[in-house]
């Protein structure tokens, strides 16, 4: 079973040549780069890097080195750093895109399914099938845990899966403000809000256990997406595990 690994990349990542790049400077450079039109070959390289980053981080966690991303993308590591001045910038880009994708999947399920349980199960199946669970940023899980504190079905911090740290990797930490789970530029707040609507609808309909929280639903997504070398085996294992977990979420007549 695959769960998210231990901490994120350091707040100040090391760029080629040994110089440190602060998160603020790195993010500013990345934002400027996003708005600058790219040549065809540069755009192609960017797409390769982003695809490779999703694969590498999905398999090894956010502790995987930039060299692994470059190798998977079949470009030099300098090419990766030219587009993403620090690893932190690349990690945030991937995490934000995956968080936005999960949010859209939740909104689609909420808008297209009349039955509360069908909406919740559709969201879970779509999210697990897309592999987004392997790229859930830690602040999504931590934020949902804090948001559930004091309510029925609160998620204890000890139950939140943590990311694995690659051998030799520096300790990875979140900036405290990023883990609030509130409205921020990473879209975590929007995700928690829409998943919360799915949970409340299913609970109000008596189809979801009363002790199940938003955090529990996100933990299902994180744990039901194992990383296996064979795509067919991975899909089968994910579907089987999700069937079992969904049965555990449903309420039962007394």
UniProtKB/TrEMBL annotation:
> Would the keyword DNA damage turn up in this protein's UniProt record?
no
Question: Which GO molecular-function terms appear in the entry?
Answer: DNA-binding transcription factor activity; transcription cis-regulatory region binding
Stretch list, region Disordered:
1-26
Species of provenance: Streptomyces yokosukanensis
What keywords are annotated for this sequence in UniProt? DNA-binding, Transcription, Transcription regulation
Identification of the protein by name: TetR family transcriptional regulator
Domain HTH tetR-type intervals: 43-102
InterPro entries in UniProt: Homeodomain-like_sf, HTH-type_TetR-like_transc_reg, HTH_TetR, Tet_transcr_reg_TetR-rel_C_sf, TetR_SbtR-like_C
| Taxonomic lineage from the root | Bacteria, Bacillati, Actinomycetota, Actinomycetes, Kitasatosporales
- Residues annotated as DNA-binding region? 65-84
**Entry keyword Transcription regulation:** yes
Q: Which PANTHER family match?
A: HTH-TYPE TRANSCRIPTIONAL REGULATOR BETI, HTH-TYPE TRANSCRIPTIONAL REGULATOR RUTR
